[in-house]
Amino acid sequence: MQKLIYIFNAYIAFILYIFSKREKNIWLIGGHNGTLYTDNSKVFYEYIVEKHPLVDIYWIINKDAPVFDQIKANKLIKGSIKSYLYFYHARVVLFSDTLNLDIAPFSFVLPCIRRVYKKKFKVYLSHGTIAFKKMPKKSGFIQEIKESIFRSYDLAIASTRLEKRAMQDYGIKSSNIEILGSARHDTLQTLQSSKSTLLIAPTWRGWLYKQKSLQDTEFFQHYSRLLTHPLLKSHLEEHDITIHFYLHHMFHKFYDEFKVCESNRVVILPASANITHSILSSQMMVTDYSSICSDFYYLQKPVLFFQFDRDEYIEKIGSEIDLIQSVFGDIAYSVEESVDKLIASINNGFKLSPLQKEGEKYFINFQDRENCRRIYDTILKKLLGAS
Predict the structure, then answer these.
(1) End-to-end CA gap in the chain
(2) Domains of the chain, with CATH numbers?
(3) Among 215, 279, 370, 377, which is 20 to 30 Å from 48 by CA?
């Protein structure tokens, strides 16, 4: 039913667009399928609002998104008649996943509307550094559509040479990929907190997404054992440290299952949690293959990679970084090894390891906090070149 509403609204807005006044400097931006307000899109949106008030920019959000009230400046309901109308008038559209998911559902495939889609200046911001994931390949017609969508992007923002190569593999034209840095890194600076915290933030697994429960999976068993490990808990108590556990947004539907792991030293963060605050205030991160690790590398904070299912991940997802041969950081392959390394890091005052310093090349390029400016200037330059 929701899909039909989107399509109906798209065509009603299209009729209105034909007879409406042409607006000249509307920009639309969004991310995470309209559910979250975070990452590169959020930082770039707030940069435009603050630094370039003449740009009429709007955030696209689902009407029932838990973060709806966090967006203080202009916003539009995704899939509404008004949002489609603004999309038709927009000069620039920016997104972290895809334009169809974040901004205007089905706009790439709908007759007539696809013609408008092609004319938009489309900017792919990405929502994290591409390092540990390969783009899954589909078969036949679906893969052709995906590649056509990627080829339609006018500008894609990469933060490293590795990321640019990955985007080329997606099908994005090399001439449309610019290494400019991640927008979200501009606002990263360590927050001093009265309490020490460890952030544990695993990524999701596509092969588990459709399951009704995670409780019988290796994923749940390993993380629940880590979160409740008695030796780790005693060290947390001794050093007055709290763990913040944050599920990837694609796994938020399993949030209640992890609540059993909560204690006075373990907090299971809800979907509406300010993950950026946790990143900035935490002393260390444990992840598996999440791009959030790039933020900790940028902030010079230690990261432990807990890769208990590395072989299965390589087989089912794949990684741009060679997970077997490359040196990119400290790794643990079991709960016990993770606990030992966490305790060692706590005891040595969260010092960076040589392995992490060696791995910085995969995650960091610019450190001048000018990424948003570079992105904005590049958009204007390309717009002028296209006009």
Answers:
(1) 40
(2) 2-181+367-386 (3.40.50.11820), 196-362 (3.40.50.12580)
(3) 279
